[in-house]
Amino acid sequence: MMVLNVKHLTKTYPSGVTAVDDISFQLEAGHCLGIVGESGSGKSTLARLLLALERPDRGEVFLEGVPLYTMRREALRLKRQHIQAVFQDPHASLNPSLTVMTSVLEPLDNFPHAVPSFLKPVSHDRRKLAAALLHMVGLGEDILDRYPHQLSGGQKQRVAIARGISINPKIVVCDEPTASLDVSVQAQVLNLLKSLQEELGMAYVFISHDLAAVRFMCDRVIVMKAGRIVDQCAAGALFKSERHPYTRQLLAASS
Length: 255
Ligand SMILES: Nc1ncnc2c1ncn2[C@@H]1O[C@H](COP(=O)(O)OP(=O)(O)OP(=O)(O)O)[C@@H](O)[C@H]1O
Fold this sequence. Notes:
The protein is of the alpha/beta class.
């Protein structure tokens, strides 16, 4: 089943830069689509469009067949629960004045009917619910009452991931999810994202500079340059010599 169908997405900023220029692709349930490209190629703008944090000038995103941008506000709010995000900087995406427990439970507080089956046994108890989510991302309940500044970068990103999966979304948009982490922690977070995907069957849009991470995580890859798709292939074919010259340039820059 197709969970995401992106058609002719185009976004020009008031500065005149067309950050996303006629982008179309599809994403199947449970699959991982990589988006790569140099800095400024439009990856983050595309992520924000998919999350309906920004509106395109042209084009549409169909989430399970339903057009995202033409939905009414309340319908959009309900549909939004199926697409969650994990951003590059977990410190910026976690509210510094909220405890881990409050942050992790935020989506469930907004969508109380979206408690996934794996959390049903503990859904009557907020503390147990938050602890179960932390457990899924390899964290102990000892951090439930801590604030973001009391956590390591890796722990913060795990908390952000726990929040992202808490309502069992169909799609998670991961925008450079390991870029702000120590190299030693990056592989652990990638392994976590991959095993959660296998366990929960979510589809990922995985945006990264790290082409080895993309090959590890993804089924297919789209290569963006100046807002356009210039190459696309199976993730395993990314490192093959017959790729588009721009893709080869990215490979050379990242090795
Ligand atoms: N809010 C904004 N207002 C105006 N221009 C913007 C805005 N956000 C991004 N841009 C411009 O749009 C283009 C694409 O930026 P975007 O951040 O989407 O690229 P990116 O591929 O994610 O880059 P990076 O890898 O550095 O995060 C760039 O030229 C950028 O300067």
